[in-house]
From TrEMBL:
Domain Protein kinase: 26-291
InterPro entries found in the cross-reference section: Kinase-like_dom_sf (IPR011009), Prot_kinase_dom (IPR000719), Tyr_kinase_AS (IPR008266), Tyr_kinase_cat_dom (IPR020635)
A GO CC term attached to the entry: cytoplasm
Organism of this sequence: Coprinopsis marcescibilis
Name listed for the protein in its UniProt record: Kinase-like protein
Keyword ATP-binding found: yes
GO terms of biological process kind: intracellular signal transduction
The keyword Heme belongs to this UniProt entry's keyword annotation: no
PANTHER family: AURORA KINASE (PTHR24346:SF75), MAP/MICROTUBULE AFFINITY-REGULATING KINASE (PTHR24346)
PROSITE patterns assigned: PROTEIN_KINASE_DOM, PROTEIN_KINASE_TYR
Alphabetized GO MF terms: ATP binding; protein serine/threonine kinase activity; protein tyrosine kinase activity
Length: 291
């Protein structure tokens, strides 16, 4: 690994922009995200054929000295396993150079779903919401058919193309192949109640049902631009209010249709065993004309 602009190939725990990798065929041009695990760069080819534009990639970089190499390898293997679907960010290769691991991936040019929701790109546009969300449903169905359950679906982990009209899932660090899990997850708006309390084997939950819950919260974000509560836990008073009166809760706080309210009650069922399945979720989305 070399660098065109600096004598040092790294700055702290990550390479500096301008660093060359993969036998100097890829240049890390700029850092685009530091919010999750690893540092994410936009990278371009350095060897360009005549009359051709250089290809652009997303490159996610981890330190090989952080003691989590096996976790990074596992994440890469799961993402590579499900790559090839239009709703999944494809992983092309994994490199290890100079104490760093590099995931070379497809580049999505319109930021992430969080940005699109924050810019209110979907508000009031039922046709676009339905089109984009069905892409997400199809992508998650692909994951589940491949035996992979994401467990960290949220707008920041869904990358966008065509100004948010196309979406693709990324970030497989929390993914699992276990159909039942007892792993306790950290508090998040997008995590289901059972995976925030599954501390013991007797509390085993379904990662498949957890993904459905996360999709429900994401859809609420797209439709309303708001979150329904901070976390689906016993110490969140707003979530507890929802639990006491699910049918009346959403219409009292969010501008949604009756049909959408009925759907959300089934998708955001606190009991994962009776929660709506992904298949039936998609069927009901097809039948909704107004969110």
């Amino acid at each position: 690994m070399s660098n065109k602009f600096a004598t040092s190939a790294s700055n702290g725990d990550h390479p500096v922009p301008g660093t060359l990798i993969d036998n100097d065929t890829l240049e890390l041009v700029e850092i685009v995200d530091t919010s999750g695990y690893g540092i994410v760069y936009r990278a371009v080819e350095t060897f360009i054929k005549p009359n051709k534009k250089p290809k652009t990639f997303t490159v996610k970089v981890f330190s090989c000295t952080d003691g989590k190499r096996s976790n990074h390898i596992r994440e890469a293997s799961l993402q590579y396993h499900v790559s090839g679907h239009p709703g999944i960010i494809s992983l092309y290769q994994v490199l290890e150079e100079d104490n760093h691991m590099y995931f070379v991936m497809y580049y999505a040019n319109s930021k992430d779903l969080f940005h699109q929701i924050d810019q209110r790109c979907y508000l009031g546009n039922d046709h676009v919401i339905k089109s984009v969300f069905k892409q997400l449903l199809d992508a998650v169905d692909h994951l589940h058919c491949m035996g992979v359950y994401h467990r960290d679906l949220r707008p920041e982990n869904i990358l966008c193309l065509e100004n948010g009209l196309r979406v693709a899932i990324s970030e497989f660090g929390s993914a699992t192949t276990d159909r039942r899990s007892v792993e306790f997850r950290t508090r998040s708006i997008y995590h289901s109640p059972e995976c925030q309390a599954g501390r013991y084997a007797s509390d085993a939950y379904s990662p498949m049902a957890t993904d459905v819950w996360s999709l429900g919260i994401i859809l609420l974000n797209m439709v309303t631009g708001r979150n329904p509560w901070e976390s689906a836990t016993a110490d969140d008073p707003i979530f507890q209010a929802y639990g006491r009166s699910p049918f009346n809760f959403f219409p009292s706080v969010l501008p949604i249709s009756t049909a959408f309210n009925k759907l959300m009650i089934q998708v955001l069922d606190p009991n994962w065993k009776t929660r709506l399945s992904l298949h039936h979720f998609r069927q009901k989305i097809e039948s909704i004309s107004t969110f």
